[in-house]
Design a protein that fits this description.
It is a single chain. By secondary structure, this protein is of the alpha+beta class. The radius of gyration is 20 Å and the shape is globular. The chain has a single domain, classed as SecB-like (Bacterial Protein-export protein SecB, Roll). It starts with 8 loop residues before the first strand and ends with a helix. Helix 1 packs across helix 2. The protein has a four-stranded antiparallel sheet.
Length: 154
C-alpha cells in the first residue's frame, strides 16, 4: 500500500480593509501651489489564526509634505486570510513575507488612491513593488546583522 502525499494548498479566502486612516492637519494646504514630497512606508505582518489559516496584513503609510507642511497622511492596513495546508515549513516565511503581501498590494494601492482623491488631492497611484526582492533584501540584512552581532560578542 503506497502512501499518498498530501498536496500543498494555498488560497486567499478573504480580503478586507482592517484599518483606514486619512488626515489633513490644516486646510492651508489647499491654498498653496501643489508640489508635494511623498514619503511611503510599507510593512507586513502575519499571524497564525488556526492550524491552516493565517492573517496577513500589509500596512501602507503615505505622508505628503507641501512647502514644509504636512498636507496629508494616509494609512491603509489591507488584510487577507490565507489557507495554507501541507506547506513546507521552510517555504512559510517567503509565502507570508512576500507572496501574500504581493497579492494584497493592489487592493491597498486602490484604497490609498481612493482616500487621497476623496480628500480632494490629485490621484496617487503607487508604483508596483517587487516583494520577493524586498523580502530577500530584508533577509540578507537580518543575516548580516546577526553575523555582526555574533562576531562583536566573541
Amino acid at each position: 500500500m503506497s502512501e499518498q502525499q498530501a498536496q500543498p494548498q494555498l488560497a486567499l479566502e478573504r480580503i478586507y480593509a482592517k484599518d483606514l486612516s486619512f488626515e489633513v492637519p490644516s486646510a492651508k494646504v489647499f491654498t498653496k501651489e501643489w508640489q508635494p514630497e511623498l514619503n511611503i512606508n510599507l510593512s507586513s505582518s502575519a499571524e497564525q489564526i488556526d492550524t491552516t489559516h493565517y492573517e496577513v496584513v500589509l500596512k501602507v503609510t503615505v505622508s505628503a509634505e507641501n512647502q514644509q507642511e504636512t498636507a496629508f497622511i494616509a494609512e491603509v492596513q489591507q488584510a487577507g486570510i490565507f489557507l495554507m495546508e501541507n506547506i513546507d515549513q521552510e517555504q512559510l516565511p517567503q509565502l507570508l513575507g512576500a507572496y501574500c503581501p504581493s497579492i494584497l498590494f493592489p487592493f491597498a494601492r486602490e484604497a490609498i488612491n481612493d482616500i487621497v482623491t476623496k480628500g480632494s488631492f490629485p490621484q496617487l497611484l503607487l508604483a508596483p513593488i517587487n516583494f520577493d526582492a524586498a523580502f530577500a533584501e530584508n533577509l540578507a540584512r537580518a543575516q548580516q546583522e546577526q553575523q555582526q552581532a555574533a562576531t562583536g560578542n566573541a
